[in-house]
Each structure stands twice: as C-alpha cells, then as structure tokens.
Amino acid sequence: MAMFFAGISGNVTNLLYHPHDIGINDNSSEMYITDTRNHRIMLYRLGVDNGTIILGGQGPGTNKTQVYHPAALYFDSISNSILIANYLAHTIVRYTLGAHEWELIAGNINGVSGSNSTMLRNPHRVALDPMGNMYIADANNHRIQFFYNGQLNGITIAGITSVPHNNASTLNRPYSVILDNQLNLYVVDTFNHRIQKFLRY
User: Fold this and answer.
1) Which of 22, 145, 147, 149, CA to CA, is 20 to 30 A from 118?
2) What DSSP letter does each residue of 14-56 carry, written as one string?
C-alpha cells in the first residue's frame, strides 16, 4: 500500500493536500484519491509509494482536463469510470479510465452555480443506483438531486431548494449520500447534525 508522510502536504506524487475522498477498484486493487487542494485525482497502485495524476494537476479550472476542488468520487465498475463531485466548479463529471478528459453529467459546463433543475451549487457527493441513476448531495442548494441515467435535468427528492432548515422535509448543507440494498436514501445532513433517511424514490 502507498505510504504518505503524516502532517506534510505537497504536490509531488507521494504527497497530498487536503484529500477528501477515496475509492477502490476491486478488480485491480487500485486506489483513487480526490487530492482536493491540489485540484487533481490521483491513482495509487498496491505496493507503490508514488502515485499517478490521472486528471487535473494543472491548477483549478473548468476545462475538460481540470478539476476544481474535487470533493468526492464514486468508482463505477460497470463503466470503468469515476464520477467526481467537482465542488467549486458546481458540476459532476465522469472520467473514464484511460481517457484524456472528462464528460459533464450534471451542472453547468462553464462552472456557473445555480438552483434550477440543470444546475448545482457546490455538490459534495454522488452515488449511483444499479440502474445508473444518480443521486447528488447538492450541498449549498440544501437538497438532494436525482438524475435519471443519461438525463441532465434533475429532480429534487429531498430538501427544499435554497431553504436551509431543520424540520423533517428540509436539509442544511447535505454533504453525503448513500443507498442501502432497498434503495432507501441516507443523507448526512451536516449543519443539522443528523442523518436523514428517505424511502426509495
């Protein structure tokens, strides 16, 4: 397993700067990391200390070879790709392993934030169900957005857009989502200091 130097940040290939998330490719034991403040996605292989930049590493930005404060990733074994919550670009992008650039799957291609059905504001986490439908913790819109596979128009299935609150139907900066095997949705309702469960959509 790769070794890192505790307490030391940097942008060389054996150092990270505020990493936020990790994903494992079960088929290859490869490890993918959102190296958030370095604005890059890193690949580490078993037993190798130095990683490989597979996306980004050119400073923050919104072109198709850059990421901008990537907060989280989701490894999709079916498509052999990584979904990235591109936090400060207000997008979710898909990077197919071995490609040269990402593909937009949610949000505005120019990195503009918004609250309508096609836009996001600081998405923090993404998950897929077995049908390839997507669930996004759209943190600063205080909602969970659902996207049918291949669609760019989302549906708010939890929370009220732009309304942070603590009653049963609202959220306040949801930072993470996960599905159980019945496709019930669990939300880390961060600023409300609670976990919310929503029945299958």
Assistant:
1) 22
2) T-BSSEEEEEEETTTTEEEEEEGGGTEEEEE-TT-SS-EEEEE
**Residues near 40 by beta carbon (within 8 Å), at least 6 away in sequence:** 53, 55, 56, 57, 67, 70
Q: Which domains does the chain have, with CATH numbers?
A: 60-198 (2.120.10.30)
CA distance 115 to 136: 13
Give the tens place of pLDDT for each residue, 91-142: 999 999 999 999 999 999 999 999 999 999 999 999 999 999 999 999 999 9
CA distance 165 to 96: 37
Q: Tell me which DSSP letter residue 63 carries.
A: S
Among 71, 76, 88, smallest CA distance to 35 is for: 71
The pTM of the whole model exceeds 0.90: yes
Give start and end residues of each alpha helix (H) in 88-142: none
52 forms beta bridges with: 43
Query: What is the chain's length?
Result: 201
